[in-house]
Structures are given as C-alpha cells and as structure tokens.
Structure prediction request, 366 residues.
Amino acid sequence: MAKRICAIGNADCVYRFGGDEFVVVALGLSPRHEERFARLLIQAVTRPIHINGFAVEVGASVGYDRWEQGREPLEDAAHRADLAMYEAKSRGPNQHMAFEASMQDKVAKRATLESKLRIAIQKKAIRPFYQPLVDLKSGTVCGFEALARWTDEEGVAIPPPVFIGIAEETGMITELFEDLLAQACQDALAWDDHVMLSFNVSPVQMEDKLLASRIFKVLSANGLPPRRLEIEITENALIQDPAVAAIILDELHDAGVQIALDDFGTGYSSLAQLARYRFDKIKIDKSFIATCRDDERQEKIIRAMLGLGRSLNILTTAEGIEEHRQLGHLLQLGCDVGQGYLFGKAMPAEETRSFIFNRDEVLAGG
Ligand code: C2E
Ligand code: MG
Ligand code: MG
Prediction:
C-alpha cells in the first residue's frame, strides 16, 4: 500500500499514521487538482493484489484539507483531514471528501451527547415505553414491545436510533440493555400471563457470547419466565458472526424464549441464510405496510412474506399499521399480529394495564 501511495505524483511525504491509516502531504498541489488526487489514491489502493493465486481487494476512504504551512502545525490539518475521512467512510466504501466546518460541529455535538448518555444511563433516566401488539383475529392485546425513551434534562426527546447507535459504538449498550430489560420484566409481571414482552436486541449484542446468560440472569432476578419473553433481532444481526448468532439463538430458544425477526425485508440476508435459524415470528417492516394498498408490487411482496411465514409455520406481525384500511387489508391477507399507531403508540408502563382493560371492554361490547 505504501509503495502504491508513494508512486502517485506529488505525494512528497507519506506516513503510516497507525493501524490502516496513512497521511499523505501533497506539497504544491493546486486546489483544482485536490479531488482528482483523492480519486487517484483510492484507485491505487483498491486495485486487487494477487497473493498465491488469490485476488485480494481492500477499500479506501479519503478525507482532505489544505495545510496552512508555516501558520499551523501539520497535526491541525491532519486532524481536519481525519474528520473528513470519517465522514467519507460513513457514506460507504471508496468515497472521498473535503473537510467542511460542519464536520467539526458534528463531532463536538456527538461528544456532548455521548457524555450526556453516559450520565443518563448511570442515573437510569432512560425508560422503556410499551407499544401494544394486537392479535388480529381476536382483537386482543397479545404483547407489548418495549421501546427505549430518553428525554434529556432540557426536556428534549432524543430519538432511539440516535442514542442506541451511540450506546452500540461505545459499548454502553450492554449496561443499558440490562437496565431496560430488568425494568421491563418487572412491568410485564403486571400483565396477564399470556401477554408477551418483546424486547429489541442490537446487532452488536449478537457478537456477545454471554448474551443468553445475561438475559437468563435478568429474567430470573426479576421473576419473569423465559416463555414470556420474545427478543427481536434484525437480519443484520445475523451477518457479523453467523456462528455465534446461531449459538445464542439456540440457547435462548431451548430455554423457551421466542425469537422474532424484526424489520423483515429491509436487510441484506438471503433466505438461505435465514433458513439456518429457528424463528418463531417475522415482523414485516413498516415500509411495506405504508404503501401496500396503493402499490400492487408491494402487496405481492407482503403476500409472499405471509406465505413464507405460513409454510414455515411461524407467526407474522405487520408493523406500522396506521389506518383502518391497512388493517382490513392485512386481516384479509391472513396476517396474525398487528402493531402501529392505529392501535396505540408506545406508552409508559402505568398506562398498559388500563390499555389492555379498555381494549377488552370495547371488544366485549361488540
Ligand atoms: P423497531 O424495533 O422496528 O421498532 C418500531 C419502531 O416503529 C418504533 O420506533 C415505533 O415507535 C415505530 N412505530 C410503531 N408503529 C408505528 C406506526 O404506525 N407508524 C410509524 N411511522 N412508526 C411506528 P422507535 O421507538 O423510534 O424505535 C426505533 C428503533 O430503535 C426500533 O425499531 C429499534 O430498532 C430501536 N430501539 C428502540 N428501543 C430499543 C431498545 O431498547 N434496544 C435496542 N437494541 N433497540 C431499540
Ligand atoms: Mg422491534
Ligand atoms: Mg421494526
């Protein structure tokens, strides 16, 4: 790699920065040629390398900025280029980007949020809310999905994908998960025995060989039988380390925990990969439900997913049901369970019991 990078014109100084990062100082490069230079670097690095008859390929992300030589240390420019490189990397493989001031703001904001999250987890300020899962045939509540909610000290609600993402990247997810699950188990004890607790597990947690035993520990400490817990995982959780994922799912399954495949239809796994795991339920992603009535192709996809569930003898849930006509349609297609704003948004634990009661009342009344 070093040789290839050095071979590119104007690469006066090339340094290996550590790990898989290089710093290239291109003296005298005119601003007009910056972008082309970045592209050349990517081309040079990504050309396949032949080793013992195998073609090996690596990817490269490039970030860059101008060094005010004489007016600032090289470290300052390298730092800006580094920020741009991370931005490029986040946009996919083999991208290049020039530094922009907004990237610095983003990093600063993210650092603030990360330290606020650390404190919020310590103070147990992140709480589970519960969104009802409705048995479409009987109309009764058959479970609640726990969804993490965090309102910061200024009263701003931080969206779960944001703070869950940071918790995953920083390793705080395990502690957050255990706290939320413990709380959710206690809350679930107030529901009828047949009402399930669904809980989301992050893809990074599926690399943790101790995950199943962590879950069992929380369940037994709080007195919730494993058969009342359903964990939701996404397809992407199976890709990182399929062997470890299979072991974790088997351990959970053997103990009676149900496994649901969340956001089905949006991941990158093949049906062949999915067939290796034992699922009890698939949750059809809300993006399919949103357009199913108006888009014939989407409807056919839903039909196929429901058929897949039936032939594998597993239940299907439709996420994101917002309108009566969507519900009617899904009922007609034979979907088992529904979830969405039509039934109810995620609510605090205190409201779940009266929610179940009121729904049963309405059904009993006709
Ligand atoms: P998910 O597991 O697929 O959860 C469903 C999301 O869809 C929730 O968003 C829910 O509020 C939203 N939703 C439900 N019904 C409707 C509807 O009718 N219309 C629309 N537009 N949206 C609906 P939320 O709570 O913002 O959570 C987003 C994602 O964050 C979740 O997706 C899940 O992947 C993750 N998440 C939330 N809580 C946790 C947690 O405790 N642990 C982990 N690992 N992930 C969590
Ligand atoms: Mg979910
Ligand atoms: Mg989902």
